[in-house]
Write a structure and sequence with these properties.
Belongs to the universal ribosomal protein uL14 family. Pfam families: Ribosomal_L14. Keywords: Mitochondrion, Ribonucleoprotein, Ribosomal protein, Transit peptide. With 144 residues, the chain is of the alpha+beta class. The protein has 3 helices and 5 strands. Strands 1-5-4-3-2 form a 5-stranded mixed beta sheet. The longest helix is centred in the first third of the chain and has 14 residues.
Length: 144
């Protein structure tokens, strides 16, 4: 092999093994994540058409990272409102947890009673074993 080809092969191999900066794949939601409210309460309807999307301002667990079934505090239409997460964009595939196109949540009051009367999106069947979500299961129509 001549010297020119040898240098070309070395340059090509160094280009293909170069380390690029890649952001971490999302598995859960965190502070300032945008959410989609999927119940039929009045605040949900008005909040989804408001000029700003509902965002998480607090996650009620020790890790400050929320998953399906966790309670969060949202900023909706300039108000603070509690919600339960019923769907996350998971880029990392896990067994038994479905992937969703958007981060979904349902608005609740302090006793975990939903503010709406119906959930308009499918929710995961794994929420049936969660004791905080029994009232959500009662008003849900579709399960994944």
């Amino acid at each position: 092999m001549n010297r020119f080809l040898l240098n070309t092969v070395k340059n090509i191999s160094s280009i293909s093994t170069r380390d690029f900066s890649v952001s971490m794949k999302l598995e859960h939601v965190q502070f300032m994540s945008r959410m989609k409210i999927v119940d039929d309460s009045k605040l949900a309807r008005d909040g989804m058409t408001y000029k700003r999307a509902p965002k998480i301002i607090h996650v009620y667990n020790k890790k400050q990272i929320g998953g399906i079934g966790d309670k969060v505090l949202l900023a909706v239409k300039g108000q603070k409102q509690k919600a339960i997460i019923v769907g996350c964009k998971n880029y990392v595939r896990k067994d038994g947890i479905p992937n969703f196109d958007s981060n979904n949540c349902v608005l609740v009051d302090d006793q975990d009673t939903p503010l709406g009367t119906r959930i308009t999106a499918p929710i995961p069947a794994s929420l049936r074993s969660n004791p905080n979500c029994t009232k959500l299961i009662a008003i849900a129509t579709h399960f994944v």
